[in-house]
Amino acid sequence: MVKAWYMDNENTDQRLxxxxxxxxxxSIEDLYKKTGIEYFKLNVETFNTDGVLEKLKKERGYxxxxxxxxxxDCLPNYEDKLKAFYKEHLHTDEEIRFAVEGSGYFDIRDDSxxxxxxxxxxxxxxxxxxxxxxRFTVDTNNYLKAYRYFVGEPVWLPxxxxxDDMDCRKEYLHKLQKGFGVAA
Length: 184
Description:
The protein is of the alpha+beta class and 184 residues long. Helices cover 21% and strands 32% of the residues. It has helices at 28-35, 52-60, 78-86, 167-178, and strands spanning 3-6, 38-41, 64-71, 89-90, 95-102, 104-109, 115-120, 124-128, 134-138, 143-150, 159-160. The protein is globular, with a radius of gyration of 16 Å.
């Protein structure tokens, strides 16, 4: 099960846990209500054959996938990429990530503009809504292998904050104000 918590405001190594003191964890249900992030637990050993992922892909229209390995050995210009991933940004499409090896953090702003950190480990699939401010980093293990899913051809264009005039941001804020409801 994925773990999520409110972050401290320290400017130390981004790959650390960054818990508040005392730690302030958030449930998956509240994470959805406060950010719109959807979470699914998949079996890393059987996801290619058990039909769970295929059903999700079909329901959501994911027609393209690739794999990314975030590590010093596999990602050219590793340090620069890590800095780019960690800049607060949004996308016009939802961001879907399925961790299969290693671990990392996705940070997202809640409805009060506070950072929530989400630890992803093998088997965790998260869907980050379009228009939401977020960022990514590996943890101190410096390694994450994940599948990325897209509707149609991949569009991975980050729009750094501020991007509040974008339609996807306005739609996200409207959903956030109205309420995301019960997680899927």
